[in-house]
Design a protein that fits this description.
5-stranded mixed beta sheet; alpha/beta; 30% helix; elongated; 4 helices; single chain
Protein backbone atom coordinates (compact mmCIF):
# COMPACT_ATOMS: atom_id res chain seq x y z
CA UNK A 1 0.00 0.00 0.00
CA UNK A 2 1.35 3.41 -0.98
CA UNK A 3 1.79 6.08 1.67
CA UNK A 4 0.74 9.73 1.59
CA UNK A 5 -2.48 9.09 -0.26
CA UNK A 6 -5.23 11.74 -0.07
CA UNK A 7 -7.89 10.80 2.50
CA UNK A 8 -11.38 12.03 1.60
CA UNK A 9 -14.35 11.72 3.96
CA UNK A 10 -17.85 11.32 2.52
CA UNK A 11 -21.30 11.51 4.09
CA UNK A 12 -24.76 12.94 3.74
CA UNK A 13 -27.21 14.79 5.93
CA UNK A 14 -30.78 16.02 5.78
CA UNK A 15 -31.78 19.68 6.07
CA UNK A 16 -35.41 20.47 6.81
CA UNK A 17 -36.98 23.28 4.80
CA UNK A 18 -37.39 25.41 7.90
CA UNK A 19 -34.99 26.15 10.70
CA UNK A 20 -34.87 24.03 13.82
CA UNK A 21 -37.25 25.27 16.52
CA UNK A 22 -36.06 24.08 19.92
CA UNK A 23 -38.57 26.20 21.88
CA UNK A 24 -42.26 27.02 21.73
CA UNK A 25 -44.73 29.07 23.73
CA UNK A 26 -47.83 28.09 25.67
CA UNK A 27 -49.80 29.65 28.53
CA UNK A 28 -48.09 29.25 31.90
CA UNK A 29 -48.39 25.72 33.33
CA UNK A 30 -49.92 24.46 30.08
CA UNK A 31 -48.28 21.97 27.74
CA UNK A 32 -47.29 23.15 24.26
CA UNK A 33 -48.49 20.98 21.37
CA UNK A 34 -46.96 21.11 17.92
CA UNK A 35 -49.39 21.60 15.07
CA UNK A 36 -46.85 21.02 12.29
CA UNK A 37 -43.87 18.68 12.00
CA UNK A 38 -41.25 21.19 10.86
CA UNK A 39 -38.44 18.66 10.63
CA UNK A 40 -40.00 15.49 9.23
CA UNK A 41 -41.08 16.41 5.72
CA UNK A 42 -39.84 18.36 2.72
CA UNK A 43 -36.16 18.20 3.43
CA UNK A 44 -33.15 18.66 1.22
CA UNK A 45 -30.52 15.95 1.51
CA UNK A 46 -26.91 17.01 1.05
CA UNK A 47 -24.18 14.56 0.08
CA UNK A 48 -20.62 15.75 -0.04
CA UNK A 49 -16.96 15.03 0.58
CA UNK A 50 -14.30 16.63 2.78
CA UNK A 51 -10.62 16.98 1.92
CA UNK A 52 -8.14 19.04 3.99
CA UNK A 53 -11.07 20.52 5.91
CA UNK A 54 -12.83 21.79 2.78
CA UNK A 55 -16.19 20.54 1.63
CA UNK A 56 -16.48 19.77 -2.08
CA UNK A 57 -18.53 17.73 -4.56
CA UNK A 58 -21.74 18.71 -2.78
CA UNK A 59 -24.96 17.36 -4.26
CA UNK A 60 -28.30 18.68 -2.99
CA UNK A 61 -31.34 16.46 -3.51
CA UNK A 62 -34.99 17.21 -2.73
CA UNK A 63 -35.69 13.51 -2.26
CA UNK A 64 -34.50 10.62 -0.15
CA UNK A 65 -31.03 9.35 -0.94
CA UNK A 66 -31.08 5.78 -2.15
CA UNK A 67 -28.51 3.56 -3.84
CA UNK A 68 -29.38 4.83 -7.34
CA UNK A 69 -28.95 8.50 -6.37
CA UNK A 70 -25.79 7.85 -4.35
CA UNK A 71 -24.20 5.88 -7.20
CA UNK A 72 -25.02 8.70 -9.65
CA UNK A 73 -23.51 11.26 -7.24
CA UNK A 74 -20.31 9.23 -6.94
CA UNK A 75 -20.02 8.76 -10.71
CA UNK A 76 -20.98 12.26 -11.90
CA UNK A 77 -19.97 14.59 -9.07
CA UNK A 78 -17.48 12.97 -6.67
CA UNK A 79 -15.12 11.04 -8.98
CA UNK A 80 -14.41 13.99 -11.33
CA UNK A 81 -13.38 16.12 -8.31
CA UNK A 82 -11.40 13.53 -6.33
CA UNK A 83 -7.64 13.82 -6.05
CA UNK A 84 -5.90 10.93 -7.80
CA UNK A 85 -5.44 7.69 -5.88
CA UNK A 86 -7.67 8.80 -2.97
CA UNK A 87 -8.79 6.78 0.02
CA UNK A 88 -12.51 7.51 0.36
CA UNK A 89 -13.83 7.01 3.89
CA UNK A 90 -17.52 6.06 4.03
CA UNK A 91 -20.00 4.96 6.64
CA UNK A 92 -21.91 1.73 6.45
CA UNK A 93 -25.24 3.02 5.12
CA UNK A 94 -26.87 0.40 2.92
CA UNK A 95 -27.00 2.70 -0.12
CA UNK A 96 -23.21 3.24 0.06
CA UNK A 97 -22.66 -0.38 -0.88
CA UNK A 98 -23.98 -0.35 -4.43
CA UNK A 99 -22.00 0.42 -7.60
CA UNK A 100 -20.24 3.32 -5.85
CA UNK A 101 -17.47 1.16 -4.41
CA UNK A 102 -16.79 -0.51 -7.77
CA UNK A 103 -16.82 2.84 -9.59
CA UNK A 104 -14.25 4.26 -7.17
CA UNK A 105 -12.00 1.21 -7.49
CA UNK A 106 -12.20 1.37 -11.31
CA UNK A 107 -10.81 4.91 -11.15
CA UNK A 108 -7.89 3.92 -8.89
CA UNK A 109 -9.36 4.94 -5.54
CA UNK A 110 -9.76 2.85 -2.39
CA UNK A 111 -12.85 2.72 -0.17
CA UNK A 112 -12.32 2.54 3.58
CA UNK A 113 -15.48 1.47 5.42
CA UNK A 114 -16.01 2.85 8.90
CA UNK A 115 -17.15 0.49 11.64
CA UNK A 116 -20.94 0.53 12.23
CA UNK A 117 -22.24 3.35 14.44
CA UNK A 118 -19.02 5.36 14.46
CA UNK A 119 -19.80 8.83 13.07
CA UNK A 120 -17.16 10.28 15.40
CA UNK A 121 -14.50 8.73 13.11
CA UNK A 122 -15.81 10.59 10.04
CA UNK A 123 -14.36 14.11 10.01
CA UNK A 124 -17.10 15.40 7.71
CA UNK A 125 -19.49 15.14 10.69
CA UNK A 126 -17.83 18.20 12.30
CA UNK A 127 -18.32 20.22 9.12
CA UNK A 128 -21.96 19.12 8.92
CA UNK A 129 -22.54 20.18 12.53
CA UNK A 130 -20.92 23.56 11.81
CA UNK A 131 -23.11 24.10 8.73
CA UNK A 132 -26.27 23.26 10.68
CA UNK A 133 -25.12 25.58 13.49
CA UNK A 134 -24.65 28.48 11.05
CA UNK A 135 -28.05 27.77 9.57
CA UNK A 136 -29.80 27.75 12.94
CA UNK A 137 -27.93 30.79 14.25
CA UNK A 138 -28.71 32.89 11.17
CA UNK A 139 -32.13 31.26 10.60
CA UNK A 140 -31.36 30.50 6.97
CA UNK A 141 -34.28 28.75 5.30
CA UNK A 142 -32.84 28.40 1.78
CA UNK A 143 -30.54 25.35 1.87
CA UNK A 144 -29.20 26.03 -1.65
CA UNK A 145 -28.15 29.54 -0.60
CA UNK A 146 -26.63 28.19 2.62
CA UNK A 147 -24.31 25.88 0.68
CA UNK A 148 -23.43 28.52 -1.92
CA UNK A 149 -22.49 31.10 0.72
CA UNK A 150 -20.92 29.09 3.53
CA UNK A 151 -19.08 26.24 1.90
CA UNK A 152 -15.44 26.44 0.93
CA UNK A 153 -15.12 26.82 -2.81
Amino acid sequence: MRRNRPVVYSDGSGFGKSCYRPYAYAPKSRRCYVLHDWQGHHQTNAVGALFHGKLFAVGLFDCSIDRRIFDAWVERILIPELPQNSVVVMGNATFHKGRASALLKEKGHTVLWLPPYSPDLNQIEKKRAWIKGVRNRLRITDVDWLFRMYIDK
